[in-house]
């Protein structure tokens, strides 16, 4: 696997006003990449753009945009080409969360969620792919989630929503197909699957409960909270290496493997966690212990599967 040279290339980073997007822009700039910063908060983008230019000597551009709108995406690409003449890297990081039970999800909110989390990245890929192909290659990064691999029901906590999970499953599918379709044009399509990351993501959560807004508790995850800088470092390393699917921590990867290997146990634990949370929030510690135990069992199964597979391959006659 060759190593992509980043210095002097041009990258578009969406959702760059905070969190993973801002941290990724910093790491790219530190590698000598000229960065186009995209989000809706122009003041934050301009402040970050000025800081990156001063610290790393790279060229920067701040472009306010609503990534759910094709017209904004087309304008973003046009402004980038006008300023830099090329696009080498696209980091589709902008995203939106949603909380609510399947039976109560508001249609207009689900549609907007998919506009941001699915159609925005899809349209951005469609816009830059022909440009990258003419240039002889490029890299597209789609920031998904481990919830694009395992389903979590509504638990009354941040990140636990079938609508959000469904949007990430859809993004993963588009990414996988594009990876195969664009390979002949030397365009890498990389899916990044973080767990719970410390950011301002919670502040813009959509909440749906039969049309009645309610408060979303801000909470961490059973596997811990990862700083956005760690995710950013992993994203940039994946771009350099041209990787396929990227997990940020070993625990994230193993829990996905375990939940996939034993879906019945995964669902059993989450059904009970949901019931306890809905019945009595004081039982959260007991519920958390249950899911933590189930997670440990899933991890053990995953580890055993991996070790067993390696041993079988080692013992197979050649």
Write a concise synopsis of the structure shown.
The chain has nine helices and nine strands.
Task: Explain how this protein is built.
The chain contains nine helices and nine strands. With 318 residues, the chain is α/β, with parallel strands linked by helices. The chain has two domains: 10-248, NAD(P)-binding Rossmann-like Domain (Rossmann fold), CATH 3.40.50; 250-312. Strands 3-2-1-4-6-7-9 form a seven-stranded parallel beta sheet, sandwiched between helices. The protein has a two-stranded parallel ribbon with strand order 5-8. Strand 6, helix 5 and strand 7 form a beta-alpha-beta unit. Helix 7 (250-261) packs across helix 8 (263-279) and helix 8 (263-279) packs antiparallel against helix 9. The longest helix is centred in the C-terminal third of the chain and has 32 residues, at 284-315. The chain starts with 9 loop residues before the first strand and ends with a helix. Residues 210-220 have low confidence and may be disordered.
């Amino acid at each position: 696997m060759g190593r992509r040279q980043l210095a002097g290339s041009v990258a578009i980073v969406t959702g760059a006003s905070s969190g993973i997007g801002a941290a990724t822009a910093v790491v790219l700039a530190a590698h000598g990449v000229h960065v186009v910063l995209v989000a809706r908060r122009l003041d934050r983008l301009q402040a970050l753009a000025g800081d990156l230019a001063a610290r790393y000597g790279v060229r920067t551009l701040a472009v306010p945009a609503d990534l759910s709108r094709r017209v904004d995406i087309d304008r973003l690409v046009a402004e980038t080409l006008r300023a830099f003449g090329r696009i080498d890297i696209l980091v589709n990081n902008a995203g939106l969360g949603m909380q609510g039970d399947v039976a109560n999800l508001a249609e207009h909110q689900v549609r907007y969620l998919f506009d941001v989390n699915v159609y925005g990245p899809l349209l951005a890929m469609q816009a830059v792919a022909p440009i990258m192909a003419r240039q002889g290659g490029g890299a597209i990064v789609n920031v998904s989630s481990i919830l694009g691999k395992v389903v979590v029901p509504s638990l009354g906590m941040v990140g636990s929503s079938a609508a959000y999970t469904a949007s990430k499953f859809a993004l993963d599918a588009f990414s996988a197909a594009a990876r195969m379709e664009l390979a002949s044009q030397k365009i890498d399509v990389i899916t990044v699957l973080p767990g719970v990351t410390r950011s301002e993501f919670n502040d813009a959560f959509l909440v749906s409960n039969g049309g009645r807004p309610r408060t979303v508790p801000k909470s961490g995850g059973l596997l811990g909270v990862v700083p956005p800088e760690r995710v950013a470092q992993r994203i940039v390393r994946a771009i350099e290496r041209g990787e396929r699917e990227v997990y940020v921590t070993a625990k994230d990867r193993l829990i996905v493997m375990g939940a996939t290997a034993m879906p019945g146990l995964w669902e059993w634990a989450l059904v009970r966690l949901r019931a306890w949370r809905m019945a009595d929030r004081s039982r959260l510690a007991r519920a958390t212990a249950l899911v933590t135990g189930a997670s440990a069992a899933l991890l053990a199964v995953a580890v055993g599967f991996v070790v067993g597979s390696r041993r079988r391959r080692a013992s197979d006659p050649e």
